[in-house]
Design a protein that fits this description.
The complex is a heterodimer. The N and C termini of chain A lie far apart (about 60 Å). By secondary structure, chain A is mainly α. Chain A has one domain. Chain A is about 80% helix and about 0% strand. Chain A is built from four helices and one strand, in the order ααααβ. Chain B is of the alpha/beta class. Chain B has one domain: Rossmann fold (3-Layer(aba) Sandwich), CATH 3.40.50. Chain B is built from five helices and five strands. In chain B, strands 2-1-3-4-5 form a five-stranded parallel β-sheet, sandwiched between helices. Classes of the chains: A mainly alpha, B alpha/beta. At the A-B interface, helix 2, helix 3 and strand 1 of A face helix 1, strand 5 and helix 5 of B. Strand 1 of chain A pairs antiparallel with strand 5 of chain B.
Chain lengths: ~180, ~120
């Protein structure tokens, strides 16, 4: 390989690597943010529905209690109705408790996104620091060798970043999860 | 006397939901903010059940389970994982570490209570 070809090949490798790794990390960031949006949206919808249902259930109970206090509705049917309303409110409270767990999941996703962006900044910083160390007037072989080192450092930093970021949240819906007893 | 449960999770809102659900069912719940805090509290008092998250600062759930199983007082105490992790690989690791069950978040309070009742009564 000629010196010009060697240099061109190293420039190409560095730019391709920069593009591929940058693209990979930004795609992950985009995916995590979209997942966060889904979870938040569904949680807010469910919490809103639970809130309204709890409000309706409590209002209906209050009307019945008022009638009972007046002494006009103390029947077995009204007692059954109160019990049914209490069960309904409890069911909606349970649904709200499930919905309220969105904060735990979304904070994990946001935390992962923040760590990835910080890591990506470090990767780019390392590339910048390496290139700053290159003499502007050096032989093409030296430049090619320096570019090769920068590419290697970029790939290592990027792989290291990926390895420390676990994908803990795969959920895209606020439905209660599986239970398995061993 | 009410059965005692140690709930270990770094998310305050999640612990709040666990406490709300299990206290309503008559259990006494103690909170721990991460695995290390959970281990310290478990050494100070023997609980009837430990419910732990996986990904936490200082000490994760699997390390906590292994540490607890190394203690003579926790060799038979049921330990359940409550985590967003749902892969078979992680479940296998949990089982190997000594977990008795795996619950994937988000949890439904009624189902959580049913499982806890089934495990410790």
């Amino acid at each position: 390989m000629t010196t010009e070809n060697l240099l061109g090949s190293q420039v190409k490798r560095l730019l391709t690597s920069l593009s591929d790794h940058g693209n990979q990390h930004l795609t992950e960031v985009e995916t995590d943010l979209v997942q966060t949006t889904y979870l938040l949206s569904e949680a807010i919808d469910k919490l809103g529905a639970s809130f309204m249902a709890i409000h309706d259930g409590i209002s209906a109970q209050k009307e019945l209690v008022d009638l009972l206090l007046d002494g006009t509705a103390a029947t077995p049917e009204s007692q059954e109705r109160i019990k049914a309303l209490q069960d309904e409110v409890a069911r909606h409270v349970n649904a709200a408790v499930t919905g309220l767990q969105f904060q735990d999941m979304t904070s994990q996703l946001i935390g992962r996104t923040v760590r990835r962006i910080a890591g990506l900044r470090d990767v780019l910083g390392a590339v910048g620091a390496s290139s700053a160390g290159m003499a502007s007037e050096c032989k093409q072989e030296e430049t090619a060798a320096a570019l090769s080192e920068i590419s290697k450092a970029l790939e290592e930093q990027s792989a290291k970043l990926e390895s420390v970021l676990w994908k803990a949240v795969s959920q895209t819906h606020m439905e209660s999860g599986d239970i398995e007893l061993f | 006397m009410a059965k005692s449960i140690l709930a270990v999770d770094d998310s305050g809102s999640l612990r709040q939901m666990v406490v709300f659900s299990l206290r309503a069912a008559g259990y006494q719940v103690t909170e721990a903010v991460d695995g290390q805090d959970g281990l310290d509290k478990a050494k100070a008092q023997v609980f009837d059940l430990v419910l732990t998250d996986q990904n936490m600062p200082r000490m994760d759930g699997l390390t906590l389970i292994r540490s607890l199983r190394a203690l003579p007082t926790y060799q038979r105490v049921p330990i359940l994982m409550l985590t967003t992790e749902s892969s078979d690989e992680m479940k296998s690791k949990g089982r190997a570490a000594g977990a008795n069950g795996w619950l994937v978040k988000p949890f439904d309070p009624q189902r959580l209570t049913e499982v806890v009742k089934k495990v410790i009564g």
